[in-house]
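Priority: medium. Attachment 1 of 2:
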């Protein structure tokens, strides 16, 4: 387990782009031009690049290529789009916010509406039973300070959304504790932002 502190870039978060992969350099929706977009807090390009370096070149190996991605509190969809750009198998984006819904659809359109990226307007903390295969890589980026990561993670676990051995990335303004059924893999701070990386474990085999 690692704990590191890294200072975040001061680059405006209104300007988002795909950092690497087949959509590298594609510009996503400029939030400064969207009404009521201030309630969204997208992961900056620098933080996204650091995160995906961990997920593709770190001790875990490459957990992005061929991954089935679940993006809870998807916001702008930038994390899933980055994963698809880096050869994830598919991505399902979930967010109940109306503004997020519109921005996600615009951003998916900006990369050509690929057939392997999907949006569902649901409450990330109150998920229904998963109608598809469970997911191998899960992103959670909820509103800060409301302890929603664990609520959403438990909902996803109980309703069959998370594959055994799946990697989970939680972004919040404080570290996220590993609860029963999850193993802490890595934790890093970026100014006021913390990335906690967990692995879903099968307790029946422990």
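Attachment 2 of 2:
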């Amino acid at each position: 387990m690692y704990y590191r502190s890294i200072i975040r870039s001061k680059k405006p978060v209104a300007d988002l782009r795909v950092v690497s992969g087949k959509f590298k350099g594609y510009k996503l929706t400029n939030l400064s031009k969207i009404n009521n977009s201030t309630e969204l807090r997208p992961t900056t390009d620098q933080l996204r690049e650091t995160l995906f370096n961990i997920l593709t070149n770190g001790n875990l190996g490459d957990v992005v290529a061929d991954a089935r991605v679940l993006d809870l509190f998807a916001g702008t969809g930038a994390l899933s789009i980055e994963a698809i750009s880096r050869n994830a198998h598919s991505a399902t984006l979930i967010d109940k916010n109306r503004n997020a819904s519109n921005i996600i659809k615009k951003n998916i359109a900006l990369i050509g509406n690929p057939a392997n990226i999907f949006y569902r307007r649901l409450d990330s903390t109150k998920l229904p039973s998963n109608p598809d295969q469970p997911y191998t890589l899960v992103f959670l980026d909820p509103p800060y300070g409301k302890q929603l990561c664990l609520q959403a993670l438990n909902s996803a676990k109980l309703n069959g959304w998370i594959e055994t051995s799946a990697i989970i990335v939680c972004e919040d303004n404080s570290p996220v504790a590993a609860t029963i059924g999850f193993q802490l893999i890595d934790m890093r701070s970026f100014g006021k932002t913390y990335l906690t990386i967990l692995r879903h474990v099968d307790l029946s085999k422990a």
